[in-house]
Design brief:
The protein is mainly α and 163 residues long. The chain has 7 helices and no strands. Helix 2 (11-31) packs antiparallel against helix 3 (39-58) and helix 3 (39-58) runs antiparallel to helix 4.
Length: 163
């Protein structure tokens, strides 16, 4: 029982397992369920990946406390950024049909033609693709992602502030 408690309370394992599981789940929904990911969904996957990367580094044994605190703070920032991205997508999904922005070009086109910061700005403004959702189990993808981002933010901040 103590072993399971240690796993559940280990920030490194929680971040790693949660981030990787959500990325794999989203990929499976995309491949098996044929749900196309919008640019905001892709940014959310990247933030989950960065959180998982922080978790991977956090499981290194005998890590200096300052590095551990930095990684926990970074994971909290990534979770906050992901929460803002998913919040933006939720906002777009609840707009009236006449206020939804027009669809943007595909992500590959944006990456090939615009500077990186303009691509991020264009994605964050959102487009009509981000306002659609095809799947729902109590909540849709963006709402589930928001819940996980908030939970990871709170867990990482608690771990960061804990002595």
């Amino acid at each position: 029982m103590n072993f399971i408690k240690n796993i559940l309370l280990s920030p490194g394992l929680v971040n790693l397992i949660t981030g990787v599981s959500l990325i794999i789940g989203a990929y499976l929904f995309e491949v098996i369920g044929v749900f196309d990911a919008c640019p905001l969904c892709i940014l959310q996957r990247w933030t989950f990946g960065l959180i998982a990367l922080c978790g991977l580094f956090l499981i290194i044994p005998n890590l200096l406390n300052i590095i551990r605190k930095f990684l926990l703070f970074a994971a909290s920032l990534f979770a906050a950024a992901g929460g803002m991205i998913s919040g933006r997508q939720i906002y777009l999904q609840h707009l009236p049909a006449d206020q939804i922005p027009s669809c943007a070009p595909p992500m590959e086109f944006l990456l090939n033609t615009l500077p990186f910061l303009e691509v991020i700005q264009t994605i964050l403004v959102g487009d009509g693709n981000c306002a659609e959702y095809e799947w729902r189990f109590i909540f849709n993808f963006a709402e589930w992602a928001f819940i996980f981002f908030v939970a990871l933010f709170l867990f990482n901040m608690y771990s960061f502030l804990k002595k």
